[in-house]
Predict the structure.
Amino acid sequence: MKVLITQSNYIPWRGYFHAIGLADVFVVYDEAQYTRRDWRNRNLIKTANGLQWLTIPIHVKGRFYQKISEATVSDHRWAARHWKALQLNYARAPYFTQYAPIFEQLYHQLHQETSLSNINLAFIETICGILGIKTQIRPSTDFVFDGTKSEKLVSICRQLRATHYLSGKAAQGYLDMELFSRHNMEVVWMNYANYPEYHQLYPPFQSQVTVLDLIFNEGLRAPQFSCLQSDKNSRPISLQ
């Protein structure tokens, strides 16, 4: 049983979905503290003038210690603005017209949603469906946990009877490897290097952008550029 535990992000990059596709269960850990100027409420798209941030405005004044699950939208015009930016910059992408109805409807449905977690999860689940990822997704509130960062992660993993815990290498500085080993769990470090380049508008190639860039440009071929093609929990689906 392979388990991934991480925070929700807004329209994440392809590496995020590579990790989800490798897991049997993905636990969305939005009980963590919300951090400003991070990937929780924003991501990058490509434009003719370079990279552009799409940012969901969040109430932050006086809320220094709020959890991601407590973060709320401060301006509901974000949805229309983000969709317009995607239309303007990806209209010429080969598969934009195929996937545009899905995301246009999603942005319309979410424009009055107040919870950042709910918005992120809606996009993550939709994108998993497009990429054919079958991994079970569960909120961290389904589990009982406390203690240090590592103790919380191990507690969730134990409740899922995990044998492997998937993690980004940034966690190497704080994960208690001995604790995982004591509970017969192997930590698997994600390798985000050497992803193949794919067709993009507006050269040069940029890797650190939202996965929507990949989907609009490669369509059903998108999983092979996220190392998902051979993963057991992923199978691309046709939306035609």
The mean pLDDT is 94. The two ends are 33 Å apart (CA to CA).
